[in-house]
Automatic annotation (TrEMBL):
Single annotated GO MF: GTPase activity
Record keyword Lipoprotein present: yes
Keywords assigned: Cell membrane, GTP-binding, Lipoprotein, Membrane, Nucleotide-binding, Prenylation, Protein transport, Transport
Residues of the full protein shown: 9 to 184 of 214
Example GO BP: protein transport
Protein species of origin: Gigaspora margarita
UniProt protein name: Ras protein
Transmembrane segments: none
Top-rank taxon: Eukaryota
Chief site of localization: membrane
Intracellular or extracellular location(s): Cell membrane
Length: 176
C-alpha cells in the first residue's frame, strides 16, 4: 500500500482463555475474515498481524499472539503476556467453566503483566443463543468492576469482532 498511513503505532496483543472458546477463530475472523468449523487446535502459540486504520492519520498494527488454551501449555503463557500491551481474554457463553477460567487469567494479568496493559473480555459464540448459560449482564458487571472492555462476539457470524479490536486500538496510548 503506497498511501501514507500517517502515524503507525504497533502493539503486542495476546489472546488467553480456556481451550476451544474460539481464540483462534476470533483471530482468523479479524485477520482474514474467515471462519472454519473444523479448525485444528493451536499448538503452543501462533503469530499473526493485522492493522486497523483508526482515522486518516492513525494506523494501529497489532502483533497478535494466539496462545493454546490447553493446561499443558499454561507455563508458556507468561512469555506472551509479559511484554504484551493488550490482551483479549475469551470465554464461551455456553461454558460456565470458561468464564471462571477467564477471571483467573484476568487476575494473573493484573498480578504479572505490564500495569498499563489494556484488557478486553470477549464472550464468544454469541450465535449459540439457545445454548447460552452465561448471561450478558453477569459478565458485563464483572468486566465493569474489573475495568475491562467487554464484548459478546461471534467469530462464526462476524459479530462484534472488528468492534472488539477497534475499541482496544482506541484505548491504546496514541499520543507519543
Ligand atoms: P481456541 O482453542 O480457543 O482457539 O478455539 P477455536 O478457535 O479452535 O474454536 C473451537 C471450536 O469452536 C471450533 O470448532 C470453532 O469452529 C468453534 N467456534 C469458534 N468460534 C465460534 C463462534 O463464534 N460460534 C460458534 N458457533 N462456534 C465457534
Amino acid at each position: 500500500n503506497s498511501q501514507a498511513p500517517g502515524k503507525l503505532f504497533q502493539f503486542k496483543l495476546v489472546l488467553l482463555g480456556e481451550s476451544a472458546v474460539g481464540k483462534s477463530s476470533l483471530v482468523l475472523r479479524f485477520v482474514k475474515d474467515q471462519f472454519d468449523d473444523y479448525r485444528e487446535s493451536t499448538i503452543g502459540a501462533a503469530f499473526l498481524t493485522q492493522t486497523i486504520a483508526l482515522d486518516e492519520n492513525t494506523t494501529v498494527k497489532f502483533e497478535i499472539w494466539d496462545t493454546a488454551g490447553q493446561e499443558r501449555y499454561k507455563s508458556l503463557a507468561p512469555m506472551y503476556y509479559r511484554n504484551a500491551n493488550c490482551a483479549v481474554v475469551v470465554y464461551d457463553i455456553t461454558q460456565p467453566s470458561s468464564l471462571e477460567k477467564a477471571k483467573s487469567w484476568v487476575n494473573e494479568l493484573k498480578r504479572q503483566a505490564d500495569p498499563n496493559i489494556v484488557i478486553a473480555l470477549a464472550g464468544n459464540k454469541s450465535d449459540l443463543s439457545e445454548r447460552r448459560v452465561i448471561d450478558t449482564e453477569t459478565a458485563q458487571n464483572y468486566a465493569a468492576d474489573a475495568g475491562l472492555l467487554f464484548f459478546e462476539t461471534s467469530a462464526k457470524k462476524s459479530t462484534n469482532v472488528n468492534e472488539l479490536f477497534t475499541s482496544i486500538a482506541r484505548k491504546m496510548p496514541l499520543d507519543q
